[in-house]
Automatic annotation (TrEMBL):
GO terms for cellular component: plasma membrane. It comes from the Bacteria. This is YeeE/YedE family protein. Coiled coil: none annotated. Belongs to the TsuA/YedE (TC 9.B.102) family. Pfam families: Sulf_transp. The keyword Cell membrane applies. It is found in: Cell inner membrane. It is a multi-pass membrane protein. The chain crosses the membrane at residues 12-33, 54-74, 86-109, 121-138, 175-196, 203-222, 274-293, 313-335, 341-360. InterPro entries: Sulf_transp_TsuA/YedE. Keywords: Cell inner membrane, Cell membrane, Membrane, Transmembrane, Transmembrane helix, Transport. The keyword Transport applies.
Amino acid sequence: MTPAELSTLNAQVLWAAFGIAAAFGALVQRTGFCTMGAVSDAVAIGDWTRLRQWALAAAVATLGFAALSAAGVLRPPQTLYASTRWLWLSALAGGAVFGFGMVLSSGCVSKTLVRVGGGSLKSLVVTLVTGITAFATLKGLTAVWRVGTVDRVAVDLGANADAATLLARASGMPFATAALLAGAVLGGALLLFAVATRDARRPLNVVGGAGVGVLVLAMWWLTGDVGHLAEHPQTLEESWLATNSTRAEGLSFVAPTAFALDWLMFFSDAGKRLTVGIVSVAGVILGSAAMALARRSFRWEGFANTPDLGHHLVGGALMGIGGVTALGCSIGQGVTGASTLSLTSLLAAAAMVAGAAGGVKYQMWRLERDAG
């Protein structure tokens, strides 16, 4: 492959990633897909419809990733989530902190970006705070704390810490068979839960959940297959183009928000380059804006009062710190990471739900206190 061909392929991957993210932003804007809202509905009013929508997204992504793995297109050890270390404490602590933060912020990072596209200035503030604290937790002060505390507590499994790899290793069955079996068990269980009620099977609900799952798969296919080079012409090593991790990446928004701010602030630095994550942040915002304008739902929105500002600032900081510690957000770990059957991702997703449930109960307590 010539340098010109390599540059063209890199650009194609970036444009396609932007298109997938724009479709995600438009879809979420139209269907109301929201992890925080899903947990809030379940805890506050006992309505599990939107939680089933989230489960449907995870089911579609998990079943699809299992098929990709079985076909040899993309396997868990080739992804961002690959590690022989099961970072269980990082997943628990980071996930719980992120989950609590997304309630204070009125939505997770992906939903916050969608609201920015819809005209929410307070979501723009949350995005900036999340990006700054996420970058600090990647490379700054809180990164030192993270590496020196929770990241030191892990279990080395001696093989990639995902269910399919461990099943293949323990049983001796071919990886393709193990991937299909493990993916079918988890994905099938999620699917049954997702469509168990009539409300959950409403067209808009199904389109939202299944659509998010399909877009997660599209990003996996794009970075894991289209952008995959068995031998990079310059390094002569296996490579995945246009990703920050140099591995295959799916939809995720905490670290990419930090990288997007870094790219904007140091644009003139020749060492800075556009990546799938960075263009995904822009894609979600612009896709959401296009849908909001088309439906005439675009509205400028600010903070109601000082306490509202304070809660959103704290929430944004918690999402940045917690999201990086947990290696992803409610989409990045709850759908994208979970689709790889990563043990860290599955635990982080569960911790996010628990943290969000705690955040909802805290908000309910505040309302009762203020009313009294």
